[in-house]
Design brief:
CATH superfamily of the largest domain: Aldolase class I
Structural class: alpha/beta
Distance between the termini: 36 Å
Strand order of the largest sheet: 1-2-3-4
Number of domains: 2
Oligomer: single chain
Strand content: 5-15%
Length: 263
């Protein structure tokens, strides 16, 4: 992200009454640059995807994720969130250095971080990568990478027992996107989240329709209805500026739950 272009983006957005919001991808060391985060928020960025990968230090060494090592990852996530950016996290299981407790550790990390949108996938080795070449030299490659790391396909022989890996992966998804854990994470995030830039509210018919659909599908007939109404009234009265975001998260949760239930 070039700091030089952010003021120009901010001016463009201001002149047009902020017609949309921006999202981008960054590394965790974004937390070390206060000025960059301030400029991003001013320019209209509301969310940032970060490849956190794993809380396991040995696995970070394995995948050469240098910027993630030797730091308090949760504190870094919290700092980015406090700047006014919603952190969307990418996580991977299946590293050679992953131990049997990694599934519980990763679940706890996601819950404690308040990362609402946590995308967890299985490690695969795309063709032409250093990982693919190493695994091939070890005689562990099986098939080409499908490009989908959430479909239970693994194109190499993992160090961990394959069944244990798949079951552990399934448990992570079923837990973090179960209503209890998902809504708990949403509340944790929203309690400390203070957008630095006031939203311009547009009475959009599509938003009103989405709100009523969420009420019917999630608040009336959904298994998450108790958690839905708790979040609904808490955000409406305690943090009304985040009410639309809270409703958006309930819709995200419904989508993620459907996917995880398919596993």
């Amino acid at each position: 992200m070039k700091k030089e272009i952010l003021p120009a983006i901010a001016d463009w957005m201001e002149e047009r009454n902020h017609p949309f919001y921006l999202n981008t991808e960054a590394s965790i060391n974004l937390a070390d640059d206060d000025m960059l985060m301030q400029l991003m928020v001013k320019a209209g960025f509301e969310a940032v995807f970060i490849g956190i990968e794993t809380p396991n230090e040995e696995s970070l060494i394995e995948c050469n994720k240098i910027q993630n090592r030797n730091r308090d990852l949760i504190s870094s996530v919290k700092k980015i969130q406090e700047s006014g950016l919603d952190v969307q996290g990418g996580f991977i299981v299946g590293f050679d250095n992953d131990h049997p407790k990694i599934f519980e550790e990763l679940t706890n990390f996601i819950q404690n971080s308040g990362i609402v949108t946590a995308m967890v996938g299985l490690l695969n080795a795309p063709k032409g990568t250093k990982l693919q070449k190493r695994l091939e030299s070890e005689g562990r490659m099986l098939t080409d990478f499908t490009g989908n790391n959430t479909d239970f396909s693994i194109n190499f022989v993992p160090r961990m027992d394959t069944n244990a890996l798949l079951e552990g992966y399934k448990k992570i998804l079923n837990k973090i996107y179960s209503p209890k854990y998902y809504y708990e994470r949403v509340m944790l995030f929203l309690k400390d989240f203070e957008p630095k830039k006031k939203k311009v509210f547009h009475l959009n018919p599509n938003y009103i329709l989405a709100l009523f659909r969420s009420i019917i599908k999630l608040g009336v007939i959904g298994e998450e209805r108790i958690y839905y109404w708790k979040l609904f009234f808490w955000s409406l009265f305690r943090k009304p500026q985040l009410f639309s975001l809270a409703i958006l998260f309930t819709i995200y949760g419904f989508h993620f739950k459907k996917i995880s239930n398919g596993f």
